[in-house]
Task: inverse folding
């Protein structure tokens, strides 16, 4: 069993978080008589609550120091007693996620609506208390499929909390077994055909929070470090063998050079970058390249995940792109040298 497939776990979690989003939204909207205020406050409310999901996931896996769980309550209450509001505590926790060069964009106002409004302190404290006393751990064991360290569940929860993203970006999460089936039919034969290329290159042009990217990394890690790759979901599918077995450091360099993504929604892309950073860091840790898996201890690297409209990449001018997507045109794409505006991946 993998908890990401267990609706008895995921639905109550999403329902509880949605309740906090609703409370944040009401506190941020002000007087109900202001036309459109409630709808306008929704994106910022989603961002505030969803960022605590990322903090809790990182904390549960030891990527950052304790922050939301019961182990941190005494330190939290001491800070709040000193005059820092609950929203300030949440903001400091978000800062813990942005210590790596690939993840600082989580605080960039161009990437999310986090700074578009501030929830009420009563509502913020209620969310903090929920994480400390009631919320389940986001770290769990799996029999098959993606490990919890890959951030699969936080990736799914962004969609669950944001109906606006589902409508605007047709944002639909890919189940891990579907991702594996797609890779069985594409990546497995590709590594056999291009085995002599120095880097196996792939791109997900609508990568969302990074589900297919995460599984691609897992597949390529197997290929680069064992010289073989078998299908995981496609019964009787093609298998690749006879590849050159590489040292972990070389395998990771090739993975970072070859696994690319593009996403139209900036916050979604930022989540994919965070997940990819942790996934690669986990490979470094498991292979003995680093002694401890923490965001502030990872060496600098930047996964190539561009923010932009992949359907327009390379076919319109910078000026035309800026007219169609003025918000996206202002974003510097991390890990994409010289890229501002249109994705170059």
Result:
């Amino acid at each position: 069993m993998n908890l990401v497939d267990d609706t008895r776990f995921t639905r109550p979690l999403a329902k509880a978080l949605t309740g906090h989003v609703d409370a944040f939204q009401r506190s941020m909207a002000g007087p109900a008589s202001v036309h459109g205020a409630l709808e306008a406050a929704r994106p910022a409310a989603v961002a505030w609550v969803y960022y605590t999901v990322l903090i809790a996931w990182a904390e549960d896996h030891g990527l950052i120091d304790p922050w939301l769980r019961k182990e941190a309550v005494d330190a939290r209450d001491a800070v709040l007693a000193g005059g820092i509001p609950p929203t300030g505590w949440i903001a400091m926790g978000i800062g813990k996620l942005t210590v790596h060069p690939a993840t600082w964009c989580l605080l960039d106002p161009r990437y999310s609506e986090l700074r578009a409004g501030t929830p009420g302190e009563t509502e913020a404290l209620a969310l903090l208390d929920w994480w400390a006393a009631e919320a389940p751990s986001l770290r769990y064991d799996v029999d098959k499929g993606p490990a919890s360290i890959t951030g699969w569940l936080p990736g799914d929860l962004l969609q669950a909390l944001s109906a606006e993203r589902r409508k605007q970006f047709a944002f639909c999460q890919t189940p891990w077994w579907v991702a594996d089936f797609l890779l069985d039919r594409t990546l497995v034969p590709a590594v056999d055909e291009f085995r002599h290329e120095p880097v196996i290159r792939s791109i997900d042009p609508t990568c969302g929070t990074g589900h297919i990217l995460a599984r691609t990394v897992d597949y390529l890690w197997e290929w680069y470090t064992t010289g073989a790759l078998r299908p995981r979901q496609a019964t009787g599918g093609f298998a690749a063998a006879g590849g050159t077995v590489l040292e972990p450091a070389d395998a990771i360099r090739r993975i970072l050079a070859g696994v690319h993504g593009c996403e139209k929604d900036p916050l979604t892309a930022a989540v994919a970058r965070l997940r990819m950073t942790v996934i690669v860091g986990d490979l470094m840790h498991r292979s003995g390249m680093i002694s401890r898996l923490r965001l502030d201890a990872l060496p600098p690297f930047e996964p190539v995940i561009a923010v932009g409209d992949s359907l327009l990449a390379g076919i319109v001018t910078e000026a035309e792109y800026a007219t169609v997507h003025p918000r996206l045109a202002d974003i510097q794409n991390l890990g994409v040298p010289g890229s501002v505006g249109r994705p170059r991946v």
Residues 37-60 form the longest helix (24 residues). The chain has a mean pLDDT of 91.
